[in-house]
């Protein structure tokens, strides 16, 4: 056991030396740090391993990382990040990975992902999501989380599409998957258009061509008039919309899904005007707007208050349903019931 503990401490030996050398920690603090790490390593080498030992060690290293960040700000020392912070982060990620792989609980995977996300270790976080989906692929929200991370944090549209399509094969009726897929496709086109605008500006600054040639370049790279490029004409987003409408069966869910699509498209910018108009036309053709108005009228009728609502007691204003009153009556009867014949309470006689 001792040799494994010493081997693990030797891997962190350069970190201890650098902390003492650059005076982020005092010599006494470094000695306490080594001693506590040794105690945690001995706990991990026990014959019967417990998840709380791994989590406690990882939490202790996270506290030290936060302390190092504070000391760096105080001393204005921004060097030797690779020699101090990075090894501690990798050690902490290793502990979370072992804990999640050994005990296989959802909460341990979530803690690993949360740490990697906060530490901005995107490659390891992508691998952690892959391991999570290998075990908990039966939960559709995990596909949504993984796809959103891959696109918005890891900047990988291909991985995000792959995860979303895997989830849609298993859960075609799960609406958040369709919403995430639609949002990813629109945001990806928005990124491409922003990149086009940036390239146009850089070309205008650096080029020494004539004005006519510049006008031709601007026309060919116009972010609004996309020309014959089907991808920038939101063809993929239209396909996602059509497939979602065909797959979702209930009219109420379908209307709510289209409303979410319209809201997402309106938030993206001007290049989605035609798509928004086509979705609104679809709602008007199939009578989905009428259902929306009926739902709003029903909600207004329920929310309408009478003139003497303020004079009534609170129980009368907040009207209970029949099932709620039945449950309350039953609980009150069971509390007041005493002993009776044949072991039955008085309320059931």
Features:
mainly alpha, extended, 349 residues, 0% strand, 75% helix, 17 helices
Draw up the topology in text.
Elements: H1 2-11, H2 13-21, H3 27-44, H4 51-75, H5 81-103, H6 106-118, H7 122-135, H8 140-153, H9 157-170, H10 175-206, H11 211-220, H12 235-247, H13 251-268, H14 273-285, H15 288-303, H16 314-317, H17 322-336
How is this structure best described in words?
- The protein is built from 17 helices and no strands.
- By secondary structure, the protein is mostly helical.
- Among the domains are: 103 residues, no CATH class; 119 residues.
- The protein starts with a helix and ends in a 13-residue tail after the last helix.
- About 2% of the residues have low confidence.
> Main beta sheet, described?
none
Radius of gyration, in angstroms, nearest whole number: 30 Å
Count up the helices.
17
State the end-to-end CA separation. 68 Å
Mean pLDDT: 83
Helix share of residues? over 70%
Instruction: Decide which structural class fits the backbone.
Output: mainly alpha
**Percentage of β-strand residues:** under 5%
Shape: extended
Order of helices and strands: HHHHHHHHHHHHHHHHH
Oligomer: single chain
Which regions are unreliable across 5 or more consecutive residues at pLDDT < 50? 217-224
How many beta-strand elements? 0
């Amino acid at each position: 056991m001792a040799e494994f503990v010493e081997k693990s401490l030797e891997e962190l030996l350069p970190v201890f030396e650098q902390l003492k050398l650059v005076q982020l920690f005092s010599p006494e603090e470094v000695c306490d740090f080594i001693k506590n790490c040794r105690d945690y390593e001995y706990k991990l080498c026990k014959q019967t391993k417990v998840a709380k030992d791994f989590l406690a060690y990882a939490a202790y290293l996270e506290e030290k990382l936060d302390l190092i960040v504070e000391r760096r700000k105080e001393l204005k020392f921004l060097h030797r990040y690779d020699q101090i912070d990075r090894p501690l982060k990798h050690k902490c990620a290793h502990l979370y990975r072992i804990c999640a792989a050994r005990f296989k609980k959802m909460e341990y995977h979530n803690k690993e992902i949360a740490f990697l996300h906060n530490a901005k270790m995107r490659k390891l976080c992508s691998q952690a999501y892959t391991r999570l989906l290998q075990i908990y692929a039966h939960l559709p929200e995990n596909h949504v989380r993984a796809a959103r991370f891959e696109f918005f944090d890891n900047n990988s549209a291909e991985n995000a599409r792959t995860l979303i399509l895997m989830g849609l094969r298993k859960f075609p009726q799960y609406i958040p998957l369709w919403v995430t897929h639609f949002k990813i496709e629109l945001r990806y086109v928005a990124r491409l258009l922003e990149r086009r605008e940036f390239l146009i500006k850089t070309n205008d600054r650096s080029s020494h061509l004539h004005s006519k040639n510049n006008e031709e370049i601007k026309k060919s790279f116009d972010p609004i008039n996309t020309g014959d490029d089907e991808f920038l004409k939101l063809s993929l987003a239209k396909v996602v919309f059509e497939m979602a409408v065909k797959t979702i069966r209930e009219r109420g869910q379908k209307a709510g899904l289209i409303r979410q699509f319209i809201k997402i498209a309106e938030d993206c910018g001007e290049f989605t005007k035609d798509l928004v108009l086509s979705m609104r036309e679809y709602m008007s053709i199939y009578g989905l707007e009428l259902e929306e108005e009926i739902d709003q009228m029903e909600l207004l009728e329920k929310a309408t208050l009478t003139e003497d609502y303020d004079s009534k007691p609170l129980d009368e204003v907040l009207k209970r349903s029949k099932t709620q009153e039945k449950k309350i009556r039953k609980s009150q009867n069971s509390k007041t019931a005493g002993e009776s014949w044949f072991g039955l309470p008085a309320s059931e006689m």
